[in-house]
Specification:
- This protein has about 270 residues and is α/β, with parallel strands linked by helices.
- The protein has one domain: 2-enoyl-CoA Hydratase, Chain A, domain 1.
- Strands 1-2-3-4-6-9 form a 6-stranded mixed β-sheet, sandwiched between helices. A 3-stranded mixed β-sheet has the order 5-7-8.
- β2, α1 and β3 form a beta-alpha-beta unit.
Length: about 270
């Protein structure tokens, strides 16, 4: 496998690969390197016939803190200062960013997400694109985009209703509040909870091995049929969210959210 800066790909089993989020942002937050590398890595894994199942996990104590806002300020700032052309570019960039998650969801290989510690924002949108999610008892989940003045535009709010229902999706998206592993399991966001990270990873690997032992063409066919039910809605939702962010990221509230984040204080939103 190629060398990547934001994650690494390991092969510890004949038919199972692991994609390990490594940062460099705190808590494996995902920045420009991730969005540049991830779609190609997923394409390469899908093209490798020896990979029958993929496990995604985070390195260290956390799965993913979400967007690495500090590393993305420069790129986003240039777009925000470029008028209508900048708004168009925001929509284009959103399409590029979501491409990897869409490829993960629609490809032939099943994906198991092993979530330890925090899973925030883009992290939740990533696991929503996976087939099966398992977590440690210390895992916590939050869809935080609303708190930084953005609409989730990476497929999360389009896919989550199929996992946890409309009510929980709306609560997570509209409040930005966190839920613990027990709640996540109860509402169907994760299938099982394990006492610690070691037990979690052992189960994820064993589960992936059992999936990989099945006929790969049939497994891929099952994914294809199940994904066909929601593909159109997810695509439509992503376009709508990206278009809205092209406008909303020009708002005073978004600028206030970014200032508050950098200054480590609570934002004061004005609805402008």
């Amino acid at each position: 496998m190629s060398d990547y800066r934001s994650f690494r790909v390991e092969r510890n089993d004949e038919f199972v690969a692991e994609l390990v989020l490594t940062g460099p942002g705190q808590g494996n937050a995902v920045g420009p390197d991730f969005w540049r590398e991830f779609p190609g890595a997923v394409e390469a894994l899908n093209a490798d016939g020896d990979v029958r199942c993929l496990v995604i996990r985070g390195e260290g104590e956390h799965f993913c803190y979400g967007l690495d806002l500090q590393s993305m300020v420069g790129e986003v700032g240039a777009m925000l200062n470029d008028g209508a052309a900048g708004r168009v570019e925001i929509v284009r960039q959103a399409a590029k960013m979501v491409a990897g998650f869409d490829a993960l969801a629609s490809g032939r290989m099943p994906v198991v997400a092993a979530i330890d510690g925090w899973c925030i924002g883009a992290g939740i949108e990533l696991i929503a694109a996976c087939d099966i999610r398992v977590a440690s008892s210390s895992a916590q989940f939050a869809l935080r985009e609303v708190k930084v003045g953005m609409v989730p535009d990476l497929g999360g709010i389009a896919r989550l209703p199929h996992l946890v229902g409309e009510g929980w999706t709306r609560e997570l998206a509209l409040t930005g509040d966190a839920i613990d592993a027990e709640t996540a399991c109860r509402i169907g966001l994760v299938n099982r909870i394990f006492d610690d990270g070691d037990a979690l990873l052992a189960h994820a690997r064993e589960l992936a091995g059992r999936i990989a032992a099945n006929p790969p063409l049939v497994v891929g066919g099952i994914r294809q049929v199940m994904n066909a039910r929601i593909h159109g809605g997810v695509a439509d939702g992503n376009r709508e969210a990206a278009t809205l962010n092209g406008m909303l990221m020009q708002s005073e509230d978004f600028a206030e959210a970014m200032r508050a984040f950098m200054e480590k204080r609570a934002p004061e939103f004005k609805g402008r």
